[in-house]
Write a structure and sequence with these properties.
The relative contact order is 0.09. The longest helix has about 40 residues. Helix 1 packs antiparallel against helix 2 and helix 4 crosses helix 5. By secondary structure, the chain is mainly α.
């Protein structure tokens, strides 16, 4: 039986345990006339948790350690000359054995010891699965019997169930936090290794980006200046915001203040479809449509406009961010109290005057927060700039020419045959850490502005 089928069986059995616990709690209340501390649903949920949690924990432990244990047992049975091989060669032999045990073919002829080891591995898997089913069933039955025996009218089932729910919520929150910390620590460790080759001052204040790939141990060669990449990121972000903020904000004002409920219910979901389009589609659109169109316009008026340029990437990125700005701004504007609008109308102000002098000032902190969040989204965009910016890491202010960004350079440095011990590859982690710091700072500032001034208008 597949492990996932066993998980489905356990979940179905938890449903049976739930019904059993709820039914017994009702019988206890009817037979003794005592008032239950909690609802029957709480008693049923408690019984289901007592049965399901131990069984699921056993399943998780089996999934985590079963493969390594079986490989270790099979490796111990290999001939001495095979076990004496280097670890990478031994791992390759075990991979061949695992493929044979799974029924897949392998390249080359099969050695007798490989066939024997594959048969042993297949047998161990069968025994392990049978043992797993037996242990899970025993744990489930034991949990069911224990939980049903504990049920009494005065049992605080609701408290215990809520305690389990709180622990589950804390665990989910911890996963997100631990993942973020792990990403930061991994980037920080590799960035520290990079700064052993290149001085931080040369990296953060250098004006030339020209890393030259060298052999292992040859050290850093070329220029590793961050400023051309950082300026390219800022320039494309400025162009994107110049497109997204006016259009997005005006769209939000129209949808929240002027549009009819029917039009709003149709227009807002249609606009937010833009947010669901993959960014690589935007990049292809910029490369094949927007870039040639801008180049043709430039040729018509006598101005050189590269098809892959900061302008192309910025315009398409701004289109992509429009629903981000409009949706957040619309939600913020609609939260402005109706009493403020009625007071403005009562003083004789027109609709447009009320929007300019009452609604927008009241919603300004949230709009600024939405703007900063949109900036952080633009700073971290990758596929559009990879396909449409042109990849020219030069410190220049002309948006009509090709340019490069931090995200484009990270992709370039980690593409192809790479050696993670060389500064040419380690610089990607320093760039990633810098980009992470910038976006984190923008998000913190946005959240501070929203929280600091939000209560003023509530």
């Amino acid at each position: 039986m597949s492990i996932w089928w066993l998980v489905i069986v356990v979940l179905a059995a938890m449903g049976f345990a739930y019904q059993s616990g709820a039914a017994k709690s009702r019988k206890l209340a009817a037979a003794g006339g005592a008032k239950l501390h909690s609802l029957p649903t709480h008693y049923g949920a408690l019984v289901a948790l007592w049965c399901g949690i131990p069984a699921l924990v056993i399943l998780l432990l089996f999934l985590a350690f079963e493969g390594d244990l079986i490989r270790a047992m099979v490796a111990s049975g290999l001939p001495d000359q095979v076990r004496a091989l280097p670890s990478n060669q031994l791992a390759g032999i075990l991979n061949r054995v695992e493929s044979l045990a799974s029924g897949y073919g392998v390249a080359g002829s099969v050695e007798p010891f490989e066939a024997e080891a594959a048969a042993q591995m297949s047998q161990l898997r069968t025994v392990g699965n049978l043992a797993l089913i037996a242990v899970v069933a025993a744990a489930f039955v034991l949990g069911l019997a224990t939980a049903l025996r504990r049920l009494t009218p005065r049992l605080r089932a609701r408290n215990e169930v809520e305690r389990v729910v709180v622990i589950a919520l804390i665990a989910c929150s911890a996963v997100a936090i631990v993942t973020t910390v792990g990403i930061v620590l991994s980037m920080l460790g590799e960035a520290v290794r990079f700064f052993q080759f290149v001085h931080p001052f040369d990296f953060f204040f250098g004006t030339v980006w020209n890393p030259r790939f060298s052999t292992v141990g040859a050290g850093a060669s070329g220029g590793y200046g961050l400023l051309p990449l950082l300026w390219g990121t800022v320039l494309i972000t400025i162009i994107a915001m110049a497109v997204a903020v006016p259009i997005g904000l005006m769209t939000a004002i129209y949808l929240s203040e002027y549009a009819s409920p029917r039009l709003r219910s149709l227009a807002k979901p249609a606009l937010e479809i833009l947010a669901g389009i993959p960014t690589i589609v935007y990049g292809f659109f910029a490369l094949t449509v927007v870039g040639p169109f801008l180049a043709a316009i430039g040729a018509a008026i006598g101005v050189e406009i590269r098809a892959t340029s900061a302008l192309t990437a910025g315009l398409v990125m701004g289109i992509m961010i429009i629903p981000f700005v409009s949706s957040l701004s619309d939600d913020i504007i609609t939260q402005v109290p109706r009493a403020m609008r009625d007071g403005s109308f009562g003083l004789g102000a027109t609709h447009s005057e009320t929007i300019r002098r009452v609604v927008l000032p009241a919603a300004l902190p949230g709009i600024v927060g939405a703007f900063l969040l949109a900036v952080s989204r633009a700073v971290g965009e990758t596929m559009i700039v990879v396909m449409a910016a042109g990849n020219a890491p030069v410190l220049q202010a002309n948006p009509l020419q090709a340019i490069s960004t931090v995200t484009v350079t990270i992709v370039n440095q980690l593409t192809g045959d790479i050696d993670f011990t060389s500064p040419q590859s380690l610089v990607a982690f320093a760039l990633g850490l810098t980009l992470f710091t910038i976006t984190l700072g923008l998000n913190i500032v946005a959240l501070y502005i929203v929280r600091r001034y939000r209560e003023q208008y509530e």
